[in-house]
Amino acid sequence: MSSRFWLSSIAVFGLAVSFLTAVPAHAVTIDWVTVGDAGNAADTTTYGAVADAFRIMKFEFTNSQYAEFLNSVAATDTYSLYDASMGSNAVGGITQSGPPGTFTYAVKSNMGDKPVNYVSWFDAARVANWLQNGQGSGSTETGAYTLNGATSGTAPPANLGASYFLPTENQWYKAAYYKGGGTNAGYWDYATQSDTAPTAVTAGTTGIGSAGSTGNFANYIDGADWNGQNGNVTTVGTNGGSSAYNAFDMSGNIWEWNDLTGAAGSTRGARGGYWSSFSAFSLSSSSNIATAPSDESDVYGFRLATVAVPEPSTCAMALAGLACGGYSMFRRRNQA
């Protein structure tokens, strides 16, 4: 066995070790679900056809996750990633303290596991960039999207090779409504695997949805009264059953940004309805909106998508196994 193979094995092993250890001290962890059935047919609405498998967040991006992001990159908050309404409005979940240059952020009581709101498409794209660049002090301006300081105007497309991104409308639609199990399986009307309008959840004093993680329920029509509010966001994953791909709250709780067709444009999409949607129609596959990517309000949140790859731990173990196997072969060859 040549020394070149030995050095290659060491390099692979080093890559595996660095993959396992190069994680920021306060890393945001995300649960992903795989959306398979590549090449599926579109719905009668014309949406939902996706050529390739991908992964999407199992839950909406939460206040705890967004506060971690802010504390990593927004000490000065050059790009207005924090909206003051997050602190002043009862349905917002994050406070800001300190003077510019030393801003710090904290999650309000009982709001950590609620979906973040008052975020624009540009804010969500910067989270994708931050994840693409390894979190921590990673750049928010390049990576998944080339933003270069823009906070309004035309939303750019995701860059070639982006690992994290806002889902296109077709990707979001498929993750929410497709029945799965084949390429011509059909679609549900609601993201709870049902064609019947979901029942509105209620909430306890800490904002946990009354449905748990099963059944045809959703957070809408101001049903979740808590924290002194007539309707409010609720804990992710506690508002009824998931989509066929095990993604929760894709009907109700918060409108979620999407990238429409993926091309650059002056608008970006949102789907799913929110906690105060006055009818089930807003939660259904028939409802979508397009708005300026700079819009921020209590109704907008997001979940990201990523490429369909093996779980990081599986990938790293495979690389480490390859390196160790090479080392064993090297020893046997030189002991012969």
Sketch the major β-sheet: 4 strands, antiparallel
Q: How many structural domains are formed by the residues?
A: 1
Quaternary structure of the protein: single chain
Helix content: 10-25%
**Beta-strand share of residues:** 5-15%
Q: What is the CATH top level name?
A: Alpha Beta
> In angstroms, what separates the terminal alpha carbons?
11 Å
What does it look like?
By secondary structure, this protein is α+β, with helices and mostly antiparallel strands. The chain has a single domain, classed as Alpha-Beta Complex (paralog of FGE (formylglycine-generating enzyme)), CATH 3.90.1580. The protein is built from 6 helices and 12 strands. It has helices at 3-21, 63-73, 85-88, 121-132, 169-177, 312-335; strands at 32-35, 54-57, 94-97, 104-107, 164-165, 199-200, 217-218, 255-258, 268-271, 289-291, 300-301, 305-307. The strands form 4 sheets. It has a 4-stranded antiparallel beta sheet. Strand 3 (94-97) and strand 4 form a beta hairpin. Helix 1 packs antiparallel against helix 6. Mean pLDDT is 89; it is low at 1-23, 314-320 and 322-336.
